[in-house]
Structures are given as C-alpha cells and as structure tokens.
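Data card: per-record layout.
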Amino acid sequence: MRIYDETFTKSKKLEGWIYSMALSPDKKILAVGTRTDIVLLDYVTLELIYEFKDAHFDQINSLSFNYTGNIIASGSKDKFIRLWDIIEKKEIKYFVIDNCIESIAFNSNNNLLASCSNGIYYKLADVWDVNNKKHFKKYNTDADNMYFICFSPNGNYLAVAASFYLKIFNVDTGELIHSLRPRGDDSGEIKSISFSPDGNRVAIGVYRPAFSQYDTKGERIIIWDVNKGEQLLTIYPNTFFGSIKIAFNQNGNIIIGGSIDINIFDSFTGRLIGSIEQKKVLNDYSGITSLLLNNDEIIFSYNDGRIKFGDIKSIINEYEAYLDNLLKNKEKNKINDLILEKKSKKINLIIKICKIIIVVISIILSIFLFNENSLGLGIIVLIISMIIISNIDRFFKIKK
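The structure for this 400-residue chain is written out next.
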C-alpha cells in the first residue's frame, strides 16, 4: 500500500529547521529541537506548551526524555548536553565535552545518560551519572565519527554507531560484547540504531556512498541477533539521502525506515508492506530529520520545519490480513496433503495386493500349462503377467 504524506491531516509547521524530536513516556508531550530552541508541544492538540529559548548556541542534534518524563536532555553541536526540568521550566544540569554531540539517550532507570560525538581524536562514548553529575564510564569505540547511541530495553547493553561498526558494550563492566560490521556491499556509515522491544534484535540504518563507479550506493536496514552477533537480514529501502532513520513498532514485527520517503517492512522477512511518499515542495524533496512511532502512528519531521503525523494502522492491518489468509491457505494445503498422502498409501497397498494376486495366478496357471505339455502357452502367460505387473502402477495413477 502506498500513501502520500500530503494526505496526513495532522501536521505542524515550525520556523526554521528541525533537527531532532522526542516523545514523552506518557505520550502527552512532543519535544522538538530546532537551531537553538527546544519546543514543547501538546501531542494531541499540537499547541505550544513551553519553549526553552536559546537553549543552545548551535543546532540541537538529539533529545531524550527520562522514563518518568519530568526531565528532558538535549545534545547540541555546541558541545553541551543540558538537562531541563519540564515541570519547573528550567535548566538543572549540564555536561560538556570537546566535540559536537550527535546523539544522547537515557537508560530505563533514569540515572544514566549516554552520549556520543563526532570529531577528530575523541573515540569515546560517554555515559554520565545524572544524579551525581559526573562520568559513570567511558567506552572506547576506536572511531572518530559516532552518529547514534542508545541503551537496550533492559538497560544492560549500550549500542553505538561507530562509523562503519556497530559496537555493543556491557553497560556496567564496559566490556565490548560485539563489534559488528555489515558484510560486503552492505557496509557503510551507520546513521541510526533501534532495538526490538524484546531486546533480542538490533537494527541499524546504514548509508553506503559510492566509493567507485562500480559501487551500489544507497541506504540499508540491517538486523542483527544481539546475543549471537549474527547478521540476520538486510533490507533495501531504496532511498539515497544519506541520513536514514529507523524504528521498530511496539510488537517488533514491523520496522520502518527512510530518509526522504518512508518504507514499512516486515522485520522478520524484509517484505515491503507499505510506503509513505513525500510530495515535492518547490520541485524539491526535504530530508527526514527525525522518525518516531507511537503505537500505529508515525511521527516524522522534515528539515524545512514540517512535522507530519500519520496513522499506518490500515497498512499494518492489511498486511496482517494477508498473513492470516496465507496461514489459512497453508493449513488448507496441509490438510489436502494429508488426504492425498492417505489416499496414496491406500492405492499403493492395493497395487501390492494386485501384484501378488497376479503373480500367484500366473505361476499356478503356468505350472498347469507346463504339466499339460503347453510350454508355449505357459511362457505367454508369464510374459502377459509381467506386462500387467509393470503397467499396473500407471493404471492406478491414471485412476487417481
């Protein structure tokens, strides 16, 4: 199923570029990061709740709510991570490193905040102790360019998009569990990460530039087994903007991804089940800067300041109906196969009995004819019986 973003009636337009978004855990507040401001919107009405003006000196690349929803963290190109009290409407803490902040994420216990940066020589992902305002631990990624960071759902693992590698660390010990690079032509810079809700799989959004005229450039969604470190599936969204965003749905059976258009896939088979296509604005396309899923509603922002909200339930329902029908047909085929198998066994038994009867009759008749000095007739009987036996299978197959 294909739908166009212009058909979504729920939308919001902000002034300037949008760089990041985050949805509060209670689904009541949508936070938007612009060039220097953090805008808090009522998720239902899209009315302005509050705006942290001049929250940063440069673009706000990442936002993350804590799991109680009373604090939002912002990470910026100005090298600062700032924590804001939603209730009191004020800044409460900040951290700073000597590099552009690309991505931040709270853990499920609210006490840790992870960050990664993009800059020369700083190859560390940082996890901060929010309560004590200090480093909890640093994780060596061996990469200058880190574009995304997130915790696993249970908070035990930290996943970092470290240039061409997905690095997965044990949060408490700092041990590197996996260093994963996609195979062959699937390799490229990792721009985004999403864990499945059960934490058993992790997906990465990869952009592969053309290194030569023979290379196939474009974006990929690659899904890994977290426990085994095995590459399970590669999906090709057919988008080429270079900043692919991805997200699992709440059941983990659907994954969405894209950078200009958004495609919706079965996360187990990679089958394309629907797409949201962007209508050109002024004969050009805008890049998707943030992508969120709230149950069956998709929320995405463009770099021109537009925010779109779309219900993809119809796409998912249509696909689930297709799977149900497929399952029913498989069950029907299974029953038919069982019936045919029983019928085949019955026919084979009849064939064996017929062959035995023919052999016995032909032997008795041949012996009788030999005793009557009718050697020729005996031989003829044997030949005829052999012909009948060799063709009896064909007879019963025709009858089937």
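Known properties of this structure: The mean pLDDT is 85. The radius of gyration is 33 Å.

See the next section for split statistics.
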